[in-house]
Every structure is written in C-alpha cells, then in structure tokens.
Amino acid sequence: MNLRTLTDRYSVAAQLTTDDIAEAARNGFRAIVCTRPEGEQAGQPSAAEMEKAAIAAGMTFEAIPFQSGMLPSVTDIERMKVVLGGVDGPVLGYCRSGNRAAMLWAFAQVGVMPESEILAVGRRIGIDFSPVSVAPPESVAAADKAPDAAPGSAPGRRFDVVVIGGGAGGLSAAAGLLRRRPGLSVAIVEPSSDHFYQPGWTLVGGGVFTAKQTCRAEARLIPGGAEWIRTRVERILPDENRVVVADGGALSYSVLIVAAGIVLNWGGIPGLEEALGRNGVTSNYRYDLAPYTWQLVQGLSRGTALFTQPPMPIKCAGAPQKALYLSCDEWRRRGVLDSISVGFDTCTPALFGVPAFVPALMNYIRDYGVDLHLGSRLVAVDGARRVATFEREGGAVKVEREYDMLHVVPPQVAPAFVRDSGIADDSGFVAVNPATLQHNTYKNIYALGDIAGTGNAKTAAAARKQAPVVALNVLATLAGKNPVYAYDGYGGCPLTVERGKIVLAEFGYGGKLMPTLPKWILDGTKPTRLAWFLKKDVMPRLYWEMLKGHEFMVKPEKLAS
To answer: What region holds the Beta-lactamase hydrolase-like protein phosphatase-like domain (predicted)?
Structure first.
C-alpha cells in the first residue's frame, strides 16, 4: 500500500484491497473514503466488500464516487466535509490512482484552508489542485456564503429522476435506483441538514435511547451519484414535468418520485404549540421533545398522566400507545403506578386497527389500570391551568381534565404543495395505485412513504418494502414499459408494551397478517423478548442500511400477468 500524505489527518492511495483495509487500521486510520465508481475496472473490489472489511477492522467507510476526469459534485463535497469533520482520527481516501480522492479533499478544504496552502499540498504530492481556484463547483462558494441556499437549483436543470424528500422513503428509493442503474442523473430535494431515525424516538421517551443516537447528517446519507438540492419544494407542475423550488428555480424530470412525508399540524389543537416543552406537555413525535417525555416520566410520582391519539391518518399509529406503555412500565418499576391516574384518549373506534393484536394490548391496558376512552379527541390545551379538553360521543360531549403530564400526538396532513399540485386524492395525499405506487393519472410520477395515498400503515417498515418496488417500476417507466412489481401493503409496528417486551404487529392491506418470522420463532400477537431485541438492536441497523439501498429481507413480487 503506497500512501501519499496530504496532512496528518488525510492520506490517499491507489486502489485498495480488503487486506489493505486491515493494514490501514493497524496504521491508525479511522475511516476509509472510496471515490471510485463501481465496476470501473474488471476485478475491482466492490464498495460493499470494502465497507464490510472496514467495519470488521473497526473503521467507518464512505463511498463518494465520481467519474475520472470530472470534478466532484456539490453533494460529493458536502459529504466529504462531513467525513473529515466527524471522524476522530486520520482518514484514508482511495480511487484508481488516488488522484480523485486527493481532489475531493482539496475542494472540501475551500474556505477551511487558504487557497495557497491547498495548492502547495498539491504540488508536494504531484497533483494539480488549480481547479479549486479556476472553476470551483458552485456549492464551494455557495456553502460558505449562504448555507441555506439551494446549490445547483438554477432554472432549467434536468434530471432523469427527481426525488422529493430525503427521508426514509426518498433515500431508499434513490439508492435502490442508483445501485441498479449507476449512470442515472438523480436529484434529491431535501431542505434539512439532519436526518432522524424517528422510530427511535419512542425509546428516547422511554429512557432507552438518547436523542443523539437517532440523528445523522443528511449529507452523509445522500447516495453516491445523486445530487442533493438543499431547498424545499414550492410547487409540482405535473403537466410540465417540472418541480419549482424555493429560490424560484425549476427542476425538470423524466420521472418524479414523491416521498415528502407527512406534516405534523401542531396548530390544529388550540393552545398546544404554546404549551409544548413546558407545563407538563410533551410528544415523542418531535426530536427535541422526546427527552422531555422521559424527564416528565422520571419526575412524576403521583397525579394524572394523559396520553392522546388524533384521527387517522398518522405516521406509526402504534406510537401514541407505545409512549403510554413505556411510561406505565417505568412507574410500575418504581412502585408509584398506583398513585398515578393514567388515561388514554384515542379518536379511533378500537385500540388497534388489526383485531388480532388487540387482546394482548388490552391485557396491558387492564394491568396498568389505564382509563381508556375510544372515540375521544383532544381539542384544546390550556398549559397555564394544566387542563386538556376532549370531545367525545361524536362531539356531543366536552370533557375537561386536569393533568400533571400530557403526551400529545398532533393531527397530521399532507404537505400543502402536494395538496395543491393536482396529483393528490381527496385526502390530500398522492393518488397512486396501491400495488404499483404509480400515479393514477400521471404515469411518470410515483409516491412512497407517508405521503402515498395508500391504505397501509405509515411506518418506516412500509417504506422499506415500498422502495424497491418504486425503484424497479421507475426503471421500467424510463424504459417506456409498464410497472412490473407490486407492493402488498406490508407495514410493521413494534408495540413496546413494556421495557423488554414487544407485540410485533406486521400486517398488509386489509389487515392481513404478514409475519416475517414463523410463528414458532416469534408470535407477533403476543409480547416477546425477541421482538424487543429486534426493535432495540436490529431494526436501527436495518434502517441505516436500507438508506444505502440494501434490501434485506425484501423481495418484490411481480404483478400478476
């Protein structure tokens, strides 16, 4: 392994082998960066093989590929900055010769090191770094001058595929596309610099995870080969095959994937926004509030604790009662549950939408002594008085209840730009075929995740099954063919009924039970410790891997001919 050292924290090398990875670890490197596209040369180790070797050696691995003779893109540079800034120790980059890995480093130093010093490093190792001063990618200047600008979103830009949303669905579908067709031009429109593992927020509110464990930099998750357009969408113009973004620019597409998520309408309950984060009012549906949930649970030894669930649709319909169960379990462990009056008010007509899972959940409702009210809707919060107002019996009855702790799940709606775009159904969500996830009218538009107007549970598990279906069907559409794969409505909801046990609800369209494991291994209708292990230790890892396009335990079914 012949290294060229740029600084004490960054070196480059020609193509590495998996054996070189172990040697790099012994030499003190903490991360490997691959800037070489897959299949560039026969016999070239794949990024997946190199990543596996790096992890085995105790290092992190990042693939940021770009073509020989090309400059790194906006997203490439931003991802490199994340790696260099987030690794505690030296980083080793490689490509065919090491030159691209060095050039990517040089662009990532613009605004960090004086230009003269960057050029001097290049001269010392025999690489011409003058492109950083002659023709820097627009993001190098834009990122330093206006961090919230939309790099590369000038009018008239065209992509094979535009993905709206850099959440679970958008990233997974984009990564799946690029793994299957590396040469596609793909743009991901996402304004947030942070990406959250939202299923983990229940465990943050239960004192199992920290909030920080659920957050990663978005730049680090953008698939290699995709371009990150860091801005928000203002309008979709489906008749023109264009998306208008916040700076007035337009992105043209051959195919559009809408993965815009769902909007938490905190203002839909009068008084709620003013009370959140104080007055005993919290919600596991927000990153900054989930720790407050745990703080309230720990601080409560007597009084009244209320938990609420709004009308459907909402993301993760089991999450409102997960907060309830974990809180009650903690109070029971501390021996104070009998001194706390616990209530659960849900708009739904049943505790859970799939009857097979209700008996086990009702056992916990009874064991914890929960005052359950079905068809009950939270309509107002008075934080100063610590009073919550509910409507029951179809709105005919109003009930005011004092509380010491109030866990609220807000009503949820589709984003306005989707509702107003002409691609939405009557509920405001994207009108797609529930099997193919293709739009009912515009055949070059697909949707997945929470924004899709389908009857499945809105969970990350659903997005995991939807992403490969969308990727495969998008490729068919680009080839002028009809969709060939179908989504079966699968959704998974691990209901954390106590610390250490979970009822793992897995079901598809129409409430059909769809367990991943045989019943003799895991009976999802009953609380099990195995399901807790899966939720706590396995599912987070699967989540981060699915964002890279890894489709574990996912095999899309072909449409019936």
So the answer is: 3-111
Instruction: Judge whether residue 149 has pLDDT over 70.
Output: no
pLDDT recorded at residue 556: 86
Query: Shortest CA distance to 233 belongs to which of 254, 250, 221?
Result: 250
Helical axes 99-108 vs 74-86, angle rounded to 10°:
80
| Best CA proximity match to 86, nearest among 9, 188, 172 | 9
Residue 250 inside a domain? The answer is yes
DSSP state of 511: G
* Crossing angle of the two packed helices 539-546 and 168-180, in degrees rounded to 10: 60
For residues 500 and 532, is the Cβ–Cβ distance under 8 A? Answer: yes
Q: Which residues of 81-96 are buried (b: 16+ CB within 10 A; e: fewer)?
A: bbbbeebeebbbbbbb
In degrees and rounded to multiples of 5, residue 247 shows phi and psi of: -85, 5
Write down the pTM of the prediction: 0.78
Token pair for 236: 């979709």
Q: Is 493 a catalytic residue?
A: yes
Model confidence at 314, pLDDT cuts 50, 70, 90, reads very high
User: Looking at the structure, do residues 401 and 421 belong to the same domain, yes or no?
Assistant: no
Is-catalytic flag, 95? no
Tokens of 84: 């260099």
The rounded distance, in Å, linking the Cα atoms of 152 and 225 is 15
Active-site option among 34, 95, 316, 328: 316
Instruction: Give residue-wise pLDDT tens across range 422-448.
Output: 999 999 999 999 999 999 999 999 999
Same domain, residue pair 98 and 53:
yes
By residue count, the chain amounts to 561
Is residue 426 domain-shared with residue 443, that is, in the same domain? yes
Burial string for 106-133 (b: 16+ CB within 10 Å, else e) reads: bbbbbeebebeebbebbeeeebebeebe
Q: Do residues 309 and 412 touch, judged by C-beta distance below 8 A? A: no
Give the model confidence (pLDDT) of 471-503 as tens digits.
999 999 999 999 999 999 999 999 999 999 999
Asked which of 384, 410, 436 is the last residue of a domain, the reply is: 410
The candidate with the shortest Cα–Cα distance to 174, out of 236, 219, 221, 217, is 221
pLDDT tens digits, one per residue of 178-197? 999 988 999 999 999 899 99
The C-alpha atoms of residue 170 and residue 366 are separated, in whole angstroms, by 40
Q: Do 323 and 343 form a contact (C-beta atoms < 8 A)? A: no
The confidence score (pLDDT) of residue 561 equals: 66
Where a domain ends, among 353, 377, 410?
410
Output the domain CATH number for residue 253.
3.50.50.60
Instruction: Tell me if 527 sits within 8 A of 502, measured CB to CB.
Output: yes
Q: Which of 34, 328, 347, 493 is catalytic?
A: 493
> Are residues 479 and 539 part of one domain?
yes
Task: Convert the pLDDT of each residue in 55-108 to its tens digit.
Answer: 888 888 888 988 777 778 877 888 888 888 878 889 999 999 999 999 999 999
Its domain, for residue 301, covers 266-410
